[in-house]
């Protein structure tokens, strides 16, 4: 059996090696390292793929989220509601901008932000909601957009983990994750479903004026060289990363399909194991896991809940068996030293506080084979049974 990787970037690279190598050499030959043609071509290709009017590439996913908030003109003291159960970057940028983070609990099935908790957290100071499409499954965007419209709020989609995924509205219409809210951010960190070979990110929007503002912000606030019209930052996707992303983008649907197939095999193996709760596909896709047109979960992570089990002991056991795994996330954001706030009541975070004790993510990538999946699942089952 091949060595099991949490993310097998080397194996993925082997399939696109020829194009990547030549494209990188072409960039070096051109010496157009910053804002070169490859960046502009990638931007256009991603706009076409997503069906969104504007893609603004930037240096990383955290910058993308920060720049999106800057572009909306949010001011210090404005409240921004987001999920307690997610990576720190989501709340980090809120705090960096002097905004007031308001953390709320998540749904125990989808792990995404609890819409009713959002509703209860809205105050006259609330200006935006940041739903995170955690692990590759879309948040309840129908309800979130309706809530935002009712209270005149911005919606900023944190799509760092859901690139390429679909959201099916209750009326049956379908949109790509990251194209539903007023603005969205994504990350091209190497381990993402669409990852480069360094850091990278992008902002998406259908708002022409907002896109214009954001394009200035990512380039020191300039639209004309040395004319600084807005307060900006230095956050640009370099051409070498863009050319890697151009090589991968045509394969993104196949990559996501391979992840869903691996997830299906995992879930089938765990069926009937009382101590294991496998990931949902979302309310509208629960019965469609084998359907080719079901793309509602792109499985950036395959995350189990293990019940009546010492999760940390399971992590150690898997490591001893040379099976990599991850705990995303071991500490709620409201309990992190940097984001503790006397406003928070532990009773408002019952789901998150339980999830951090139970979740474990198994290897998930495009190169998983049946032998590896069988070994991983049997090892987990033997431990929890």
Write a short abstract of this structure.
With 385 residues, the chain is of the alpha/beta class. 38% of the residues lie in helices and 15% in strands.
CATH topology of the largest domain: Aspartate Aminotransferase, domain 2
**Level-2 CATH architecture of the largest domain:** 3-Layer(aba) Sandwich
**Secondary structure tally, helices:** 12
The first-to-last residue Cα distance is 24 Å
Mean pLDDT: 95
What's the β-strand tally? 14
Features:
Aspartate Aminotransferase, domain 1, three-stranded antiparallel β-sheet, alpha/beta, Aspartate Aminotransferase, domain 2, 385 residues
Task: Describe what this molecule looks like in 3D.
The chain is of the alpha/beta class and about 375 residues long. It has two domains: about 10-250, Type I PLP-dependent aspartate aminotransferase-like (Major domain) (Aspartate Aminotransferase, domain 2), CATH 3.40.640; about 250-385, Aspartate Aminotransferase, domain 1. The protein is built from twelve helices and 14 strands. The protein has helices at about 10-30, 35-50, 60-70, 90-95, 115-120, 140-150, 210-215, 240-250, 250-270, 310-320, 350-360, 370-385; strands at about 55-60, 80-85, 100-105, 125-130, 155-160, 165-170, 175, 185, 200-205, 220-225, 225-230, 275, 300-305, 360. The strands form four sheets. A seven-stranded mixed sheet has the order 1-9-8-5-4-2-3, sandwiched between helices. Helix 3 packs across helix 7 (about 210-215).
Helix and strand topology:
Elements: H1 9-30, H2 37-50, E1 54-58, H3 61-71, E2 79-83, H4 89-96, E3 100-104, H5 115-121, E4 126-130, H6 141-151, E5 154-158, E6 166-168, E7 174-176, E8 183-187, E9 201-205, H7 208-217, E10 222-224, E11 227-228, H8 239-248, H9 252-270, E12 276-277, E13 302-306, H10 311-320, H11 350-358, E14 359-362, H12 370-384
Parallel strand pairs: 2-3, 2-4, 4-5, 5-8
Antiparallel strand pairs: 1-9, 6-7, 8-9, 10-11, 12-13, 13-14
Helix pairs in contact: 1-8, 2-8, 3-4, 3-7, 9-12
